[in-house]
Amino acid sequence: MSVQHDPVQRADFDQVMVPNYAPAAFVPVRGQGSRVWDQSGRELIDFAGGIAVNVLGHCHPALVSALTEQANTMWHISNVFTNEPALRLAHKLVDATFADRVFFCNSGAEANEAAFKLARRVAFDKFGEDKCEIIAATNSFHGRTLFTVSVGGQPKYSDGFGPKIQGISHVPYNDLDALKAAISDKTCAVVLEPIQGEGGVLPADQAYLEGARKLCDEHNALLVFDEVQTGMGRSGELFAYMHYGVTPDILSSAKSLGGGFPIGAMLTTTELAKHLAVGTHGTTYGGNPLACAVGEAVIDVINTPAVLAGVKAKHQQFTSRLQAIGEKYGVFSEVRGLGLLLGCVLSDAWKGKAKAVLDAAAVEGVMVLQASPDVVRFAPSLVVEDADINEGLDRFERAVAKLVQG
């Protein structure tokens, strides 16, 4: 039986929601695969992926089935008990990565919060309270809690909320000399995204991550990789650290991990995990059976040679076509990224106009993102069908052509 709902429209947002978002003028109501329909029945192709979340598109049968089965079994039991889906998902993550131990939570910010608290706790236990400094990159993004937004290197998000957390400094991304100059024996962690997401879809240089690993080892600091956006097959490997062959001490995951169901995870080694003894950290919903059942289905589908190889093939399809569009209309100076996390860097004439491109694309029936005002971002489903890629990029080209014609 279907429930009768009261009618709502986009205008209701301005009446009842806190005004911290400015959502699109249309309201999506249904999704299937890489297609979405709005309230008027208009169909759009989804290359935004819920900001790199809908890793298997909308309503993927494996995820619907896992959620439905779990919903009929058990929803919540709390961390006074453990549960089977959480244990199964933890095993799968440990088996597939460098990690021995997993901490589950509900979001990327919470996964990073746990990572940063663990890094400080390890340093506190082993070296005392002076070793507490965290080095992160300018233009990085690590979440919106007070701690994670302070570690993130974007003052526009962290200013205006009173005193900031102390002991955090920022250095330019991909600048090994700057990191070398900043790191000291007081540093407890270096925090990096293997590909800067919100900062403009900027991949790390190989030598930069290798150098960061070496510097951390020399200074007894932990290397933390924020793979909230880059993880779960997005780069063409299960996690982007595998693409680089540089292993962190702590890794955070979320977004694609639940394929649209809220879940986060912090992965680390047994040696480091023991510093979060009973009572030192927690979350009411973390390891929730619903979330973990879905996460298990996600990793079962994604962590297969066929899907990961497909990501690399689709990368080529997207980049060759986007480069052609960029050259034909003079709108992009570069198309960069790994796998299906792509950034089209706007040319000088179009700098600052990513939102205009995004809006024009929506009018033509394709959903894309921005990563800073200068970069148009694509983060589609990893199993987006070729027909959807072609049709979506046709629509995108029409949008660009109309913008250029003014």
Automatic annotation (TrEMBL):
N(2)-acetyl-L-ornithine binds at R144, T283. Its EC number is 2.6.1.11. GO terms for molecular function: identical protein binding; N2-acetyl-L-ornithine:2-oxoglutarate 5-aminotransferase activity; pyridoxal phosphate binding. Keywords: Amino-acid biosynthesis, Aminotransferase, Arginine biosynthesis, Cytoplasm, Pyridoxal phosphate, Transferase. GO terms for cellular component: cytoplasm. Its main location: cytoplasm. The modification N6-(pyridoxal phosphate)lysine is found at K255. It catalyses: N(2)-acetyl-L-ornithine + 2-oxoglutarate = N-acetyl-L-glutamate 5-semialdehyde + L-glutamate. Pyridoxal 5'-phosphate binds at G108, A109, F141, D226, E227, V228, Q229, T284. Homodimer. Belongs to the class-III pyridoxal-phosphate-dependent aminotransferase family. ArgD subfamily. This is Acetylornithine aminotransferase. It comes from Aquipseudomonas campi. The lineage of its organism: Bacteria, Pseudomonadati, Pseudomonadota, Gammaproteobacteria, Pseudomonadales. The gene is argD.
